[in-house]
Write a structure and sequence with these properties.
Shape: globular
Helix content: over 70%
Radius of gyration: 22 Å
Strand content: under 5%
Length: 306
């Protein structure tokens, strides 16, 4: 009996430690993103340049999605269930922003392709107006899975189902096997198109890099690394889409195992890909990094002065 109590106590302590570690990582990530967003709005050059505008879109999208996902994870940790109609409201936005970052990555890759392979047309195609139109298109494309998933749910669910209490996850809306299949098909088709865009851009930029010399070659090589990192981000985001299927199966078998796997999925496929955006543009981009360093130094000096 004492051994069992000790084991239970150890499990409880481990869960608390994992929870605290995760919340600490989320807060660090959100703080870094906030600093990057402040840096973006402090310099006019950033919010009039296509790639930085798209970068800001990923920052805002990732921050919002991480914040909402973390709240849902906290609900699961404390075994909090909510009514289905509240879950619907939450997922109206969450399902859109699950896809916004991957679609924006594809747009950023195309921007790099135009900048390196079509430099004479880059200024025209990457104007601020065209970039804003691109952001609208990104959100339109990202809304497609949300519309399909929730439309099939609204048609299938009875009115009494909305008042039931459940753990809030996308699986709440999956009442039939064909809905799972439809969701999987839509997401995989989207990611296939985005993967083709990234591979196409990578190959084209690679050709320019081989034929170029001097500054053009240097810029092309940097573009290749950026596109490769976007491809890696996209791969992690694609794996993320399979996580709910695994989690749903485990939820039916063992809740403790479900919690462990969801914790790992959150770290590897929600947090990790969204840490790469600050790395790619916040640290690797020299102009942005210098502005970020100035903002951070100014804030530190001001605090010391006070």
């Amino acid at each position: 009996m004492a051994a069992n109590n000790s084991l239970t106590g150890d499990d409880f302590l481990l869960r608390k430690v994992k929870f605290v570690v995760l919340q600490t990582l989320v807060m660090i990530f959100l703080f870094i993103n906030l600093l990057l967003i402040i840096t973006f709005f402090k310099k006019e050059y950033f919010y009039t340049t296509a790639r930085y505008i798209l970068f800001a879109v990923t920052l805002l999208s990732d921050s919002f999605l991480l914040f909402m996902s973390d709240i849902l994870l906290i609900f699961t940790h404390f075994h909090i269930t909510i009514q289905v109609w509240i879950c619907v409201i939450i997922f109206l936005v969450v399902l859109v922003y699950v896809t916004v970052t991957p679609v924006t990555l594809a747009a950023m890759t195309l921007e790099r392709y135009v900048a390196i392979c079509m430099p004479l047309r880059h200024g025209e195609l990457s104007s601020t107006r065209n970039t804003m139109n691109c952001i609208l298109i990104i959100h339109g494309i990202s809304s497609v899975p949300c519309i399909l998933i929730l439309s099939t749910f609204f048609v299938s669910a009875s009115l009494s189902y909305y008042s039931k209490y459940h753990f809030c996850s996308v699986e709440v809306f999956m009442l039939y096997i064909w809905q799972h299949n439809l969701r999987s098909a839509v997401y995989q088709f989207q990611f296939l198109i985005m993967s083709i865009i990234i591979v196409f851009s990578y190959i084209k930029i690679m050709k320019v890099a081989k034929a170029a010399s001097g500054e053009v070659k240097k810029s092309s090589k940097k573009g290749i690394r950026t596109v490769a990192l976007h491809g890696f981000q996209l791969l992690l985001c694609l794996i993320q889409l399979w996580c709910p299927f695994i989690e749903a199966a485990l939820l039916q078998i063992n809740f403790s195992l479900y919690e462990i796997v969801r914790y790992l999925n959150f770290l590897l496929f929600y947090l990790a890909p969204r840490c790469l955006s600050p790395l790619i543009y916040g640290l690797r981009d020299e102009v942005f990094f210098q502005a970020l360093k100035y903002i951070a130094s100014f804030g530190l000096c001001k605090r010391n002065h006070i």
